[in-house]
Design goal:
mainly beta; 6-stranded antiparallel beta sheet
């Protein structure tokens, strides 16, 4: 039996392990789009799950949005798939940022 597995009714089970590589980040992409989500990269694509769109902010600047997302117009959206070459930059944030 493999470490961490269990046997139940003579069947060996392996636990499901969440992808611990995903880190939440704000991703700024070309043409002015700003998203945030749990980031995973594969095959030249950036996939954002639990994604939000940073739609609008006023009077607080971009640094203020990062510090105080509740003061911005942030909208929940479906998962986002972005070509890796479209990324301008990325800012790591807390795991529940914007939700």
């Amino acid at each position: 039996m493999k470490d961490g597995n269990i046997i139940l009714n003579d069947i060996e089970y392996t636990p499901v392990i969440k992808n611990s590589n995903a880190q939440r980040a704000i991703v700024v992409v070309d043409r002015g789009w700003i998203f945030a989500g749990d980031v995973e990269e594969e095959n030249g694509r950036i996939r954002l799950t639990r994604a939000v769109w940073v739609f609008r902010w006023t009077e607080i600047g971009f640094a203020g949005v990062i510090k105080h997302p509740e003061k911005a117009d942030i909208r929940l959206i479906a998962d986002v798939d972005i070509p890796v070459r479209a990324e301008i930059y990325r800012i790591p944030v807390e795991e529940d940022w914007g939700l």
